[in-house]
Every structure is written in structure tokens, then in C-alpha cells.
Automatic annotation (TrEMBL), chain A:
PROSITE patterns: HTH_ARSR_2. One of its GO terms (molecular function) is DNA-binding transcription factor activity. PANTHER family: TRANSCRIPTIONAL REGULATORY PROTEIN. Gene3D superfamilies: Winged helix-like DNA-binding domain superfamily/Winged helix DNA-binding domain. This is Metalloregulator ArsR/SmtB family transcription factor. Residues 1-94 form the HTH arsR-type domain. It comes from Lysinibacillus pakistanensis. Keywords: DNA-binding.
Automatic annotation (TrEMBL), chain B:
InterPro entries: ASHA1/2-like_C, START-like_dom_sf. Residues 14-129 form the Activator of Hsp90 ATPase homologue 1/2-like C-terminal domain. It comes from Lysinibacillus pakistanensis. This is SRPBCC domain-containing protein. SUPFAM superfamilies: Bet v1-like (SSF55961). It comes from the Bacteria. Belongs to the AHA1 family.
Length: 108, 136
């Protein structure tokens, strides 16, 4: 993803398994510094930091400076967008099923 | 976060009647859309809704699984998003039928974003046109 706008998209942010793993780790802790997060991955500090930036741009993590280190915590609110999208399909099927109900009742 | 659609319904009709409504092309047309469905694994078919400004009205599908009268599964491709629709039917002791629906496989990638917009538009367009008919 090259442009900034796409990086802010919540769907793009969670498309990557490393970033989903980061969200999982942050969901289990109140706040974690970069070095503790890096320890969980087979990649360098810079790579993990880059993923965190994408999550931050999507509003999924909040970064806070504490002295020399940056600490991260989860902000799950933007995930609601995905839940809302899926629930549109749910609404679609519920409406279809109510038609099916009527249809089966008619045949009795 | 639960990424899949998972719904349960109950019908007073027999499992055979519900199965028929799910697998008979003419009956399907009455509660979903016109289609060329056939209960054959591997059969490719389409649901064709009224096209609108945002959506061509076509859902491409392929039958994945048929287990009469208990399980039916097909792919559901629309607006660039491919998901899987699975129907599970269970007959209760009282002769009623439980129907479970799963729609899964929503991609989390960039195309999901497009699918989100298109999916939302077509679902709302469809619902509003249904509402118009009800109110007419």
C-alpha cells in the first residue's frame, strides 16, 4: 500500500497477519513498549515499528512516549466498521428468510 | 469480533418442504432472486436481481456441497467479493425444522473494502425496493 489514504483503512490494517498478531498481543495487555512487542516476532524493531505505524494510522493503536521508549495500546473502536459491514449481510439474509417464512406458510 | 454471518431460524414446515424451498429454482426465485440453480455439485449458476446504478445485479455461484435434506453449500460472488453460503437443516422431534445459515470467507484485504461499499449499497438498495413494494 503506497498512499497514505489506503494505509488508514481499517481493512488494510488488519489484512496482514503480523498486524493481527500485534492487535492480539495488545488486546491481552494494557500497554506494551516496542521492545516487548518486537521480542514476539522473527523480525527487527524497524519492521515491527512500521506495522505499528499502519495500525496507528488506522486508529487501531495509540502510541505514547514514555521517556525514550514508545508504548502502545489497543483502540478497538475502528473494528466496529467491519462488524457493521458484516451485519449488513445479516440484515439481507434476515429479510430473505422472512419471505421464505411467508412462502412456506402459504403452501400449508 | 466475529467476522462471519451466522444465523438460526425455525420453521413449522417439514425438513423436506424447507429443503425444497432452498433447492427448487422456481421457489428460490420467489424469496431470493431469479436463478438457474440446480442441486448438482460443481454446477455454476447465477442469482439475477434487478440491476441498479451501483450494482449489476448478478451473483455468481457454484454448488460446493449437497447432502439432501441436511446440508447445502455454494459460493457467493458479488461486487468483487467471494464468500461461501452454507445452509444446515435439522428436523426436530415435533416435526419443525431448524435452519442455520453461515456466510463466511469475507476477505480482509483491499477488495473487501470495495466489497464493503458495494455490498452495503446493494443490500440497502434491495431493502428499499422491497419496502417500496410492501408500501405500494
Amino acid at each position: 500500500m503506497s498512499n497514505k489514504h489506503q494505509e488508514r483503512d481499517v481493512y488494510v490494517a488488519i489484512a496482514d497477519p503480523t498486524r493481527r498478531q500485534l492487535l492480539n498481543l495488545l488486546a491481552k495487555a494494557d500497554e506494551l513498549p516496542l521492545h516487548e512487542l518486537t521480542a514476539q516476532f522473527e523480525m527487527g524493531r524497524t519492521a515491527v515499528s512500521k506495522h505499528l505505524t499502519i495500525l496507528k494510522d488506522a486508529g487501531l493503536v495509540i502510541a505514547r512516549k514514555e521517556g525514550r521508549e514508545t508504548r502502545y495500546r489497543l483502540n478497538a473502536a475502528p473494528l466496529k466498521e467491519i462488524q457493521d459491514w458484516v451485519s449488513i449481510y445479516e440484515g439481507f439474509w434476515k429479510e430473505r428468510i422472512s419471505k421464505l417464512h411467508l412462502l412456506l406458510e402459504e403452501k400449508k | 469480533m466475529k467476522p462471519d454471518v451466522s444465523l438460526d431460524f425455525k420453521f413449522t414446515s417439514s425438513i423436506e418442504q424447507v429443503w425444497h424451498a432452498l433447492t427448487d429454482s422456481d421457489t428460490l426465485a420467489k424469496w431470493i432472486w431469479n436463478n438457474d440453480f440446480q442441486p448438482i455439485v460443481g454446477h455454476k449458476f447465477q442469482f439475477r436481481a434487478e440491476p441498479n446504478e451501483w450494482w449489476d445485479g448478478i451473483v455468481d455461484c457454484e454448488v460446493l456441497e449437497i447432502e439432501e435434506p441436511h446440508k447445502l453449500s455454494y459460493t457467493w460472488t458479488s461486487a468483487g467479493e467471494t464468500t461461501t453460503v452454507t445452509w444446515t437443516l435439522t428436523q426436530t422431534a415435533e416435526g419443525t425444522t431448524q435452519l442455520h445459515l453461515d456466510q463466511g470467507g469475507f476477505s480482509e484485504e483491499t477488495k473487501a473494502r470495495q466489497g464493503a461499499i458495494e455490498g452495503a449499497k446493494y443490500a440497502w438498495m434491495n431493502m428499499s425496493s422491497q419496502l417500496e413494494k410492501v408500501l405500494a
